[in-house]
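Good morning,

Attaching, inline, the backbone tokens for the sequence recovery test we're adding to the shared suite. The designed sequence is right after.
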């Protein structure tokens, strides 16, 4: 049973009060705005043309592992830290069972979701796997968070557990269930190459899009690939997503990899940015904070807050419309070691949730939205000494602003005169705390050298901000 019988009466009263509160919330306009591709094809906008900066978190096993109370804790934490998208698996496996013991499917058949009459949490016979997902999605909606749903994780399809016919029926079930929910984004795929079961992925994408053309849809690919490798010209694909992956420069040498970019996730964004037709792009899975380099060796060096900041600024200044953060324990909602534990977690999800990087991502979002976000265009000609690897600099500009990111805080030179005005106001913006340091006023012509605060080292990252005076 899901609850102690002696508390049944209290739970029923509580649920009734919650239902009344929910009705009141909806009546007051709780629905989130529809999202769409911006007019220039590079960004995501709300229906009233306001910029939507995607700041995502990977809560992949949220639906399976967390209780209602834990869900509230997690979503509130992410809301307070500025996250507005949670990427989550609907079906991790065809054997999926949630924390309350409810199975998702009848006999592991994705074409036959296990659905009961009613959705009363106080009644164990009514509250099922899908009711719990409904609860999480609506709770996220209350907190202003969109849910990016992976219908079925890629390995299940690759293993032959989902035929094209089954995929079509299951996709129709999901699309019909959530087409009127305001905070949905669809992530077809799930850590898989599109070439693995290509027909199934095309069927799922097409079916969802035909039933639900209200919500955006993309494809979450395998590491070191992009959705554009297989689906860029598909009508159902609204934007591209890359998974730059979890390997270091030294590890990313396999002949089996499509691209040998190592940690240079900005290169994936560059590739997608040049494609026609123009579509927005984002790094939906860079290296996670607290996870070992290369994933599988728990004794290997682990990615830090410095690393996840670098991936974020590199990708956004290269032209991405946002960024997805990840943390080892949180992405798998680790509660204790079991057969499903992966990648050497060291603490519970509730501790991992407090990792330093998670509180620093909001500064990237705030910086970009403080400027004319839709007007930014990557322009590396601004930098006269671009560097390589960790010394590489990324630059973007709008009519009145230049942004240059340095991960190491080394000295560099900028080619001036590429934004409006005879003079510019210069300042340093810290990705670590969001604070600014005024440098001064400079003539907007010729070459200008800049010296970031402190001595150069990995993680002494700064954004040079030049604004027309």
């Amino acid at each position: 049973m899901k609850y102690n019988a002696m508390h049944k009466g209290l739970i029923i009263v509580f649920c009734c009060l919650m239902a009344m509160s929910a009705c009141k919330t909806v009546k007051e306009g709780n629905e989130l705005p529809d999202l769409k591709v911006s007019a220039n094809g590079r960004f995501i906008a709300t229906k009233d043309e306001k910029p939507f900066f995607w700041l995502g978190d990977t809560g992949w096993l949220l639906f399976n592992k967390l209780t209602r109370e834990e869900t509230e804790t997690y979503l509130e934490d992410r809301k307070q830290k500025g996250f507005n998208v949670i990427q989550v698996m609907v079906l991790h496996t065809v054997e999926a069972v949630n924390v309350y013991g409810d199975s998702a499917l009848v006999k592991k058949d994705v074409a036959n979701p296990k659905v009961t009459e009613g959705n009363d949490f106080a009644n164990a016979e009514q509250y099922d796997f899908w009711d719990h997902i409904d609860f999480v999605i609506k709770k996220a909606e209350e907190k202003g968070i969109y849910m990016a749903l992976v219908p079925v994780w890629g390995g299940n399809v690759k293993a032959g557990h989902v035929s094209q016919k089954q995929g079509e029926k299951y996709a129709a079930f999901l699309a019909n269930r959530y087409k009127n929910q305001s905070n949905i984004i669809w992530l077809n795929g799930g850590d898989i190459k599109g070439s693995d079961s290509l027909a199934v992925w095309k069927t799922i994408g097409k079916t969802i899009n035909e039933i639900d053309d209200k919500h955006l849809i993309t494809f979450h690919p395998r590491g070191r690939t992009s959705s554009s490798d297989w689906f860029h010209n598909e009508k159902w694909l609204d934007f591209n997503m890359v998974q730059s992956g979890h390997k270091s420069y030294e590890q990313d040498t396999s002949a089996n990899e499509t691209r040998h970019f190592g940690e240079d996730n900005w290169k994936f964004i560059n590739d997608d940015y040049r494609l026609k037709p123009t579509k927005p792009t984002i790094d939906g899975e860079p290296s996670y904070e607290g996870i070992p380099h290369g994933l599988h060796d728990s004794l290997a060096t682990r990615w830090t807050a410095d690393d996840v900041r670098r991936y974020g600024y590199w990708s956004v200044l290269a032209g991405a419309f946002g960024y997805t953060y990840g943390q080892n324990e949180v992405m798998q909602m680790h509660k204790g070691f079991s057969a499903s534990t992966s990648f050497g977690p060291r603490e519970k999800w509730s501790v991992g949730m407090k990792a330093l990087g998670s509180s620093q991502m909001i500064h990237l979002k705030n910086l970009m939205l403080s400027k004319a976000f839709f007007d930014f265009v990557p322009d590396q000609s601004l930098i006269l000494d671009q560097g390589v690897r960790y010394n590489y600099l990324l630059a973007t500009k709008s009519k009145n602003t230049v942004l240059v990111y340095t991960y190491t805080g080394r000295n560099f030179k900028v080619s001036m005169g590429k934004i409006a005005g005879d003079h510019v106001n210069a300042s340093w913006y810290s990705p670590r705390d969001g604070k600014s340091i005024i440098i001064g006023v400079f003539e907007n012509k010729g070459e200008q050298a800049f010296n970031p605060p402190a001595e150069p080292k990995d993680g002494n990252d700064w954004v040079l901000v030049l604004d027309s005076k």
